[in-house]
Amino acid sequence: MDVDKHILTEALSAILGVTVKLQSDCKDLDGAIKLQIANLTTLALLKNEALQPVTCLTTSLSRLVVDKKKSQETTKSEKASCSLRKELFVISDDFFDPSFDFDFTNMSELKSDECMRGDEPYKRPYGWMRFALKVRDKYPDGNAWLGTGGWRSRSAPGEWPVSYHGTDLQGAAGIIQSQYTAGDRQAYGRGIYSSPDINIADVFAKTKNFISQKNGKTYKVIMQNRINPKKREIKNKDIWLVPISEGTSAEKEKEIVESSIRPYGLLLRKV
């Protein structure tokens, strides 16, 4: 897949609902917000107060709220977030890590293809191209959560399982008003939803499409994550939930998210 860093910034813009550019492409950085890898999963939880032009921004891929009442109550704050998130976000030119990119576009699943990550079957994202984020050495607890590279039938010690997270930020509102799964909105509760199966994430999480301004092609984009097995609840074989109870403080929500789910790749597929 012929994709460069500029198209990847378009993909980030689509999935986060904000304008993201390479730092080297910005002549004037005054007021720009720098997006750091290690803080990539908390902006939605911090809402408006996190959106300050500082050197390190905490930001999230998404937060799924399946409680309809809660979604209605947050409408006003979401609209405020929308206006704030029109600001410019910048990433360093080494935000991505091409050495860990992998092309799954022309691959298909085999019965013997049982790869493991974090003591869970790893359903590889066949049909997609992964563009790796530079996450190694970005977290204070080391790199054990990533395991080792390549196809493996066994998990590495301390490794986290893989999950997929499509997003629909609805204009960068931050809190998703639609549920992740089909059926009753309150079937599993409030929190962060993801799936070990990219096909489930693609269908039910409203994967974002975007048209590249660089080449005119349309792509789907979804996040590939590692999820802390100690923090997630397995609701069924396709749905994992990191529960966040009603009334949890913003600071505690930030702590829960940062310790529970870590994106490590952007997955793109040409539409």
Can you tell me about this structure?
The protein is α+β, with helices and mostly antiparallel strands. 18% of the residues lie in helices and 25% in strands. The protein contains 6 helices and 16 strands. It has helices spanning 5-16, 43-46, 68-73, 75-84, 198-204, 250-258; strands spanning 19-22, 33-34, 63-64, 88-91, 102-103, 115-117, 120-122, 129-132, 162-165, 175-176, 191-194, 208-211, 218-227, 233-236, 239-243, 261-270. Strand 12 (208-211) and strand 13 form a beta hairpin. The longest helix is centred in the first third of the chain and has 12 residues, at 5-16. The model is unreliable at 44-85 and 168-186 (pLDDT under 50). This is PARP catalytic domain-containing protein.
Throw out a few tags for this protein.
271 residues; alpha+beta; six-stranded antiparallel β-sheet; globular; PARP catalytic domain-containing protein
Strands, count: 16
Class by helix and strand content? alpha+beta
Q: Could you say which overall geometry the principal axes of the C-alpha atoms support?
A: globular
Low-confidence stretches: 44-85, 168-186
The multimeric state of the shown protein is single chain
As a whole number of angstroms, the C-alpha radius of gyration is: 18 Å
Question: SSE order, as H and E?
Answer: HEEHEHHEEEEEEEEHEEEEHE
Specify the number of helices. Answer: 6
- N-to-C terminal Cα separation, in Å? 12 Å
Question: Largest sheet, if any?
Answer: 6 strands, antiparallel
Overall mean pLDDT stands at 75
Percent range for β-strand residues = 15-25%
